[in-house]
């Protein structure tokens, strides 16, 4: 699917990191090994699966290439044995999660443009690719998705996807567009957490 | 997709009204502007997206024509600034919601017949188109979907979709079928709220 | 879709049993007849629909053949009138549910292989077919899906799907593979409930 081996490896990294976040939620909820693996797979693969179902790119990449599933399962096994270590590493995990967010937003938006979507829907689908896994993870344990509460999370994905759309319209090289989009989304996310940025609420709510 | 410009405008109206309902739920839950926009888009577009994914009509209309997304986002922005006014207008909002329900049930059922579904599955998919957005909205904030609790809501959609199936079997004109279906679903819904109709519960439950 | 009439009838049986489980949850939650039918349809058909959307086999079998929908609705009507009897029959219902689990895991995995998926993703999709309906049922009433809590439920589906993959790799006859897979998943499930098997939790969680 991806033109770039780099893109593919970034995709696996994003899958791994998101799967880690799913497995950690499962451990915190006291689920057993199967619950942990289910949440790993859901958090790691659901975003891309939703994107591919909406684009009609079926079966989704995450099912056609078994390495995605293996990556998500490996993350679940790592968490099963190493969750105490990972819980203490919450800053590095957040940073990796921000990287996954950027990678998925960019690859989701690029694939949507490739399938002929207009800029605005392509941005939406990029954001959905980036936040869909985490939302599925939270909904499966009956929590309001963090993306709805944690303010500027979706905005970071929007920044990355918007750069992809703008760069493509300007005819820039796909590789540089991808790099710029990932860096922008990643940077925005990390800085927003570090500085505690918050988004406005409805006046009088 | 729609043969009728009228149908298209009704579809936008339905999207707008459902998106309003999503945004109002987000404001009530104290979500920020992004949460409001996410729930607007989910409530306005999810029903049609689910329909199109099930029919294999991908990418869904709601992603192919950017006006759907713009309509849903506009509704979110209106609610962000005007939610206090809209909360007081709950009767007109209910009436518009009933119109959206009828429009989506009819257009969902017509599209399903066009894709070769049998009458019964076409009715199911019409109903799913009509109630899918609201169900997604409620599930995202971890509430039991109103359609499961608010009794005759799904029945109104079923009435509209059934008229489409019956009218099509009788070979009536598509326009008149659509008008009859929307009016029936709308009327049924408004009257059922006005008269407080309730559906039966299981004996002894 | 199925090569075997036997397979088709088993599929209807699985649909019926899962729909029963959905309707019983609806009655317990005090939902009305429409809520009961919605949960019947969701629990009975969602697993296969998710499978078919992911495979790109649209419209899904459950919408193309109206007998699936009729089966699910019939189960809902049975529960509406007979829920007190069915609540007392919880052992036979559990046994039938185990049969449905095996049937759906096997047919989901066989269809995935037919669509060219690799063994590991085919097992995943078989399991998703088997547990998707129940998960949708639980999410609609805002409960953590039983499959995440009830330990070895997903494992029984995995056993059945793995036998399908192994048997297909060995070139055995499709019929015997299906029988072996269903019997293994069914047997594993029934024995695991009977003996109270539990899966390991993360060390120190």
UniProtKB/TrEMBL annotation, chains A, B, C:
Q: Name one Pfam family in it.
A: Gly_transporter
Provide the transmembrane region boundaries.
6-27, 34-56, 68-86, 152-170, 176-197
Topology within the bilayer = Multi-pass membrane protein
Glycine transporter domain: from which residue to which, for each copy? 8-83, 95-166
Q: What is the predominant subcellular site recorded for this chain?
A: membrane
State the UniProt keywords alphabetically: Cell membrane, Membrane, Transmembrane, Transmembrane helix
Q: Which family does it belong to?
A: Belongs to the UPF0126 family.
**Name listed for the protein in its UniProt record:** Putative membrane protein YeiH
Q: Which organism is it from?
A: Allosediminivita pacifica
Taxonomy, top ranks, is: Bacteria, Pseudomonadati, Pseudomonadota, Alphaproteobacteria, Rhodobacterales
């Amino acid at each position: 699917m991806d033109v770039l081996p780099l893109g593919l490896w970034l995709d696996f990294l994003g899958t791994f990191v998101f799967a880690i976040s799913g497995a950690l939620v499962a451990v915190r909820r006291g689920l057993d090994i199967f619950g942990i693996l289910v949440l790993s797979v859901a958090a790691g693969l659901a975003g891309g699966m939703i994107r591919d179902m909406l684009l009609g790119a079926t079966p989704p990449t995450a099912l056609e290439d078994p390495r995605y599933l293996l990556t998500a399962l490996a993350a679940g096994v790592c968490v099963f044995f190493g969750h105490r270590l990972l819980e203490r590493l919450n800053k590095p995990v957040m940073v990796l999660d921000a990287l996954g967010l950027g990678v998925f937003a960019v690859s989701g938006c690029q694939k949507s443009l490739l399938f002929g979507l207009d800029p605005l829907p392509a941005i939406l689908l990029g954001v959905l690719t980036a936040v869909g896994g985490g939302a599925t993870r939270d909904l499966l344990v009956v929590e309001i998705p963090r993306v709805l509460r944690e303010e500027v999370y979706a905005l970071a994905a929007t920044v990355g996807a918007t750069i992809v759309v703008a760069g493509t319209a300007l005819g820039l090289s796909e590789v540089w567009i991808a790099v710029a989009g990932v860096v922008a989304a990643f940077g925005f996310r990390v800085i927003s957490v570090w500085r505690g940025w918050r988004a406005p609420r409805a006046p009088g709510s």
